[in-house]
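Troubleshooting: if your tokenizer reports a length mismatch, compare against these two reference records.
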Amino acid sequence: MSSGHTFAAAACALVLAAIAGQALAGQAASDPSPQVPPMSGGDQMLPPKYLSVPAFKSCLSTQSQGSYQSWCLPRRKPGQCPAESWASLKALKGGDALPKCGRVAVQPR
């Protein structure tokens, strides 16, 4: 192999080693599983906050949105809805807020 080829092979090996080192950075030697990078991109990639409210299904209704049904917040608290859950759902703001139910809302069973 000529010195030009040897240099290119060595450079490729260094690049691959650097890439492998970056991929394994922060990974414990005893943990052979790949590391999952942290999520980024703001709250657009996170689950909706209402999903973490206890008994949210008993507090919400659904309404037709064309070809699908979506959750909506009724005007009044349903009887089976815990007061604390109702307050949490009503307190959601901005992109986390649930839409208010229209006239065609269906109460949960």
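Reference record two:
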Amino acid sequence: MNIDDIKKANAEAGLYFFSEDTLRFFSSRTGTTVYGVFRSGTPGGQYFITSERDDCNSPRMFTVRRYDPVTHDISTVGNFKEYKTSQGAAKRAMRERDREQATGDWKGKED
């Protein structure tokens, strides 16, 4: 599953996470890498990164997100704008993916 598949499924479910208005309101950009969980040929959570900033003078901050392939909903993993770098967010996304792959469960917050 890639980010375009996630965007399409979210929109087809009548959800607005990726709508132009939503992205503009949060000055949000969506990364292209998806860190996916796969079990028995069916997808689990699909993790990706967004970046947001408050205004043109503010630094861009990064948020880890999780797409649910059953409900098509997007959840924030941890805190909104938690990371100063995309690399820090990517490490968290991979850690969450690995945990969900191993346990079949996801928590969304650090233990």
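Descriptive notes for reference record two:
- Residues 3-103 form one domain.
- The chain is about 30% helix and 25% strand.
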